[in-house]
Amino acid sequence: MRTEQVDVAVVGGGPAGLAAALSAKESGAEHVLLIERGERMGGILNQCIHDGFGTKLMGEAFTGPEYAQIFINRLTNTGVNVKLDTMVMDISSDRELVICSSDGLIRVKAGAIVLCTGCRERTRGAIRIPGTRPAGVFTAGVVQEYMNIRNLSVGRKVVILGSGDIGLIMARRLTLEGVEVECVAEILPYPSGLARNIVQCLEDFEIPLYLSTTVVDIHGIDRVEGITLAKIGPRGGIVRGTKRFVKCDTLLLSVGLIPENELAKKAGIKLSPVTAGPIVDDHFQTSIPGIFCGGNALQVHDLVDYASMESEKAGRSAAFFAGAGKLPSPSIKVLPGQGIRYVIPHEVSGNEPVDFSMRVKSPEADRYIVFKQGEKVIRRMRQIELAPAAMIRMRVRSDRFQRSLDSLTVEVAD
């Protein structure tokens, strides 16, 4: 097995990996290696033919393939070494990778590594829906690939479980192709997707959304023949007398995404029990020095622009680490307080401005996001509407941090 030495190795060629590799190269890393297991760069964006990508970062709405191509074009002729159709077989805490490509097995010794491995969909098995096992049960991303890349139809009468953004977008896509979308059922008492997608993908097409409702049975032997819906009570049980049969030939699942972090686990990186992504500091460095993370492997994003922005920072940090061998140590732990589900980064040095991203636990209206160290409020911003589906991003200037205190709390307040 031959050995290659690189300054920065980026794992994953989706939007996060492209941004990280480009940023690392522009930040002075001479030898940057981008590893992608697929046959082309762009990742999940290649099957996202709807627009809306780039509004935050570029001020214009692009389709997924267009957004990806912008970064691919920027990467061209930069000297970044791109290896497609290549799998990472092993990773160690001392920043060594074993990769398998058409050239065989190669050991890669990196000055720094950026993990941009994306996320995967929850399946029927993950949420344990009872019933038979007929054909016609798909995850939303699979249906998106079948329709947008392979030009395949999945059914004629569809029920969608889960109001995640991909499922909402596919409700519209299916309707435009002449498929009858019977309804969207959501187990939570509020939608899981962005408000704009509820309006544009369901309300504009008069597709009903049933909240506090889930699928409790799947019917059919060879093919789905229908499903049973039921209302879910505040404690999680089925409400008596609410079961009803809905005839359909397809069940589409949009029930959440999970950061893909098998490599992070193998390297011994500490993961957050809330996000399932690595615990990182304000340089997006994980608990293992020199290994960084960005994009959906860190936290599931609702906007690709934010995944690119944080991965650009991860790439810059990786380039600096590869050159200097270290970064400023974080000294302030960031803690989620009242009403906040999680905050990233999990710890900061306080030496530079920090862009925090977070999600709330439940819908709120006309409240404030408050950053506190001890009893001192260092940042406070009013939010007209708060929703778990919408990521909140707020910047705190370096001069606001109280470096004499070792913790910072973020909370929702009146």
Written account of the structure:
The protein is α/β, with parallel strands linked by helices and 414 residues long. The protein has three domains: 1-121 and 257-327, FAD/NAD(P)-binding domain; 123-255, FAD/NAD(P)-binding domain; 329-414, Sandwich (Immunoglobulin-like). Helix content is 20%, strand content 34%. The protein is built from eight helices and 25 strands. The chain has helices at residues 15-26, 64-75, 124-127, 140-148, 165-176, 195-202, 262-266, 304-324, and strands at 2-11, 32-35, 81-83, 87-91, 96-101, 104-115, 119-121, 137-139, 157-161, 180-186, 209-211, 213-219, 226-231, 244-247, 250-253, 257-259, 291-293, 332-336, 340-344, 347-348, 354-360, 364-373, 376-386, 392-396, 407-413. The strands form six sheets. Strands 1, 2, 3, 4, 5, 6 and 17 form a seven-stranded mixed sheet that branches. A five-stranded parallel sheet has the order 8-15-9-10-11. A five-stranded mixed sheet has the order 20-18-25-22-23, with no helix packed on it. α1 runs parallel beside α2, α1 runs parallel beside α8 (304-324) and α5 packs parallel to α6 (195-202). The radius of gyration is 22 Å and the shape is globular. The relative contact order is 0.14.
Task: Summarize this structure as a short list of keywords or feature phrases.
414 residues; alpha/beta; FAD/NAD(P)-binding domain; 3 domains; 25 strands; 34% strand
What's the short story on this structure?
By secondary structure, the chain is α/β, with parallel strands linked by helices.
